[in-house]
Amino acid sequence: MEKRIKRLSAWWALLLILGAAATAYEAYQVAHIRQLNQALLSGETIAGKTIADERYAYEAKFAAAYQHGRAQDYKHAVQSYGQLLETSPTPARQASLQYNIGNNLFLSALNRRINDDGSLIDAALYDLTQARVAYEQSLRLNPQPAARFNLSLLLAILPQHLRNPQREQSGMELSNLPIGLP
User: Fold this and answer.
1) Which end of the chain is more exposed for a tag (fewer CB within 10 A), N or C?
2) Which InterPro entries match (predicted)?
3) The pTM is what?
């Protein structure tokens, strides 16, 4: 009976030590993640250096793209989000990236000057059409109210002839011979 009690006590002590070690490790991870989240939210650096932890390369690149957008450097923001799309993110992350690309393109188009007659310049029209494509892609991947709302705003200011582009006819010629000849 005494051996059995000693054996049970040893097992409980071992479990207590393992539990304490696991708790300490989890507390360290939570503190590290809080510090990283705070740096991402504030746009600052951690301990005077940028986020260079290779475990958070995606988050660091996303934060850099976000900061470009906040600084009204929309071209570099869109470029950085596009580079993140090339990393094969999850569909939810792809939707978020497409949404952010759409936002930056939309803001870029709104910040461009207009022609003397009040029409949009070609670069703004291009940005608006690309923003539309990005919002639609975001909605296909993950329907979210913010993307739907921004797409409706974009469609409200988009010129009528660009809202519903003409579809190509199915009987187009592939070469100099019409389709359907023997």
Assistant:
1) C
2) TPR-like_helical_dom_sf
3) 0.63
Write out pLDDT tens, residues 57-90.
888 888 889 989 999 999 999 999 999 999 888 9
Amino acid, single-letter form, for residue 31: A
- CATH number of the domain at 51-161, please? 1.25.40.10
Calpha distance 83→159 (Å, rounded): 30
Q: What are phi and psi of 52, to 5 degrees?
A: -115, 5
Domain segments of the chain as ranges: 1-43, 51-161
Largest CA distance in the chain: 98
Q: What is the pLDDT of residues 89-108, one digit of tens each?
A: 899 999 999 999 999 999 99
Q: Which residues of 86-98 are buried (b: 16+ CB within 10 A; e: fewer)?
A: eeeeeeebbbbbb
CA–CA separation, 153 vs 171, rounded Å? 35
Q: Which residue has the tokens 């094969």?
A: 88
